[in-house]
Design brief:
Length: about 270
């Protein structure tokens, strides 16, 4: 791949979001110290600039949330030149007024996962600032790119659960009682790994369901989640494309550069 084609921007597609480019794309096999990523990285163009795309769960949804090669995925993107990442994902809503079809751009994250490798720094005394887990510049680009097709919420707290099961009603009510807005299964450790690699990162969340604690009946079912995501996929992809095009700077912003003055145990790719 020639140097001028190195993509500084990337999109990581979530459940039901397995491709991104309408025009021709090049697929790149990447090996990392953490194994292979979920799929070959597609490199195409959005308004004339190179952009990388990686389907988070694989091209055919091979990976469950708790088995995803998160470390390999983020390392692969960074090694290709990526410095800014949009991360569209499906989420459940913990608020009755944020119904299916709502898009939220969260500004906070709560980790309720367990057993997932969640750092590149197992030694060396490296501690990473993560008080604000998402890049404000990318969040702003998405919020400004919204139209009236999908209702937009410009903030919110996303709690990430282990999966692959959905929450019990009691868990869901507890999450909502904490003041959290969204529930998801893949947002951690993806966001913190991006920060460790000094890549700007923003989740863009499409609500597919009201979580179990907010409605009576049989609870959340995967078939309904996928159907709702598919119903909104065309305008959701359009929002992501407009968000990518709205980014003027392609290098890591100052707030997402967390290793200034720190000696790392290895060089970032």
């Amino acid at each position: 791949m020639s140097s001028h084609a190195r993509p500084a921007l990337a999109v990581i597609g979530g459940s039901g979001f397995y491709d991104f480019f309408d025009n021709e794309a090049t697929h790149v096999e990447v090996e990392t110290p953490y194994g292979a990523p979920s799929a070959p990285v597609a490199i195409g163009e959005v308004q004339g600039r190179p952009v990388a795309f990686l389907p988070r769960h694989g091209k055919s949804h091979e990976f469950a949330p708790h088995t995803l090669p998160y470390q390999a995925n983020m390392w692969a993107l960074r090694s290709l030149g990526v410095r800014r990442v949009f991360a569209p994902c499906a989420v459940g809503s913990l608020r009755g007024d944020w119904g299916p079809g709502t898009v939220a751009v969260p500004d906070q994250l709560v980790d309720r996962t367990s057993g997932r490798p969640q750092t590149y720094f197992d030694g060396g005394g490296v501690h990473v600032s993560f008080a604000d887990p998402y890049c404000d510049e990318l969040r702003t680009a998405t919020i400004k790119s919204a139209d009236d097709v999908l209702p937009m919420k410009g903030a919110g707290t996303m709690v990430v659960v282990q999966g692959p099961r959905f929450s019990t009603r009691a868990e869901s009510r507890w999450f909502a009682g904490q003041g959290w807005d969204l529930v998801n299964m893949t947002g951690h450790p993806e966001a913190v790994l991006a920060r460790e690699l000094e890549m700007c990162y923003a989740a863009v969340a499409l609500v597919t369901d009201l979580d179990a604690g907010l409605e009576e009946g049989t609870g959340v079912h995967a078939v309904d989640v996928f159907a709702e995501f598919k119903r909104n996929l065309v305008p959701f992809k359009d929002l992501i494309r407009r968000s990518v095009a709205a980014v003027t700077e392609t290098d890591t912003c100052d707030r997402c550069r967390v290793h200034t003055g720190v000696s790392l145990p290895f060089a970032l790719p």
